[in-house]
Design a protein that fits this description.
Blueprint (H helix, E strand, L loop, with lengths): L2 H26 L7 H21 L8 H18 L8 H20 L7 H21 L5 H8 L3 H10 L30 H16 L3 H11 L5 H8 L3 H22 L1
Length: 263
Amino acid sequence: MTLAVRHSTAAAAAADARATELVNTMAALPLGHPDRPRLRGQAIEAWMPMAKRLTRRYANRGESFDDLLQTAAIGLIKAVDGFDATRGVDFVGYAIPTILGEIKRYFRDKAWTLRIPRRLQELRLAIAAAQADLSHDLQQAPTVADVAGRLGVSEEEVLEAMEAGHAYRAVSLSAPLGDGEDSAISDTLAAEEAGYARAELNVALPPALASLDNRERRIVVQYFYGNQTQACIAEQLGISQMHVSRLLSRALKNLRGQLSEAG
């Protein structure tokens, strides 16, 4: 790793430490404390780079980047105001789902049809072919892990492409079920709101993350939400990349177990 990269990594780590200190200090103060508004403003400003990084994931999908960034900032403000350090989850682990949830709600409420990135379109086609091949080879329906292994991508990328497929074509809820049918698609919809499952996951995820030790939790958050490579994380923690990989695998196994029990 070059000296410039090392310097950049150290600077980023120092900035994150300072931002964490600000939000923890603010959260520890009572609501009426005179220093709280000042610390709140500084904490929001310190964490805005993270909000920008998360916003870039949703760029080029037909919505203005500035509008998306403003939405992410709203999510960040909600995270800063709602953070409780006594729950055992660090701020990043709490803030990232809050910000991403706000962005996804923006698309749900404001965007009629998402423009699917080409890489997801191509991956979606590859997934369909891999599923067909694996079904023949395994003589059973392949899992997400099976498909990810066959294509050499992460399970998260497979799930993202599969989810993107649902936005491929919009159909009116008033459309008839079939030729000559009097019933519309809306008549078949269950009364249960689809957001309930997402809300339950948002409740279950923080305790699941809290079950990990500090190092495992940091690795999970930086890898999946901070878009950092295993090599970069290893450099920050002072351990080997292989060790990071082992810790990440163990943490994901524990998280799956926690979420399975919660469900």
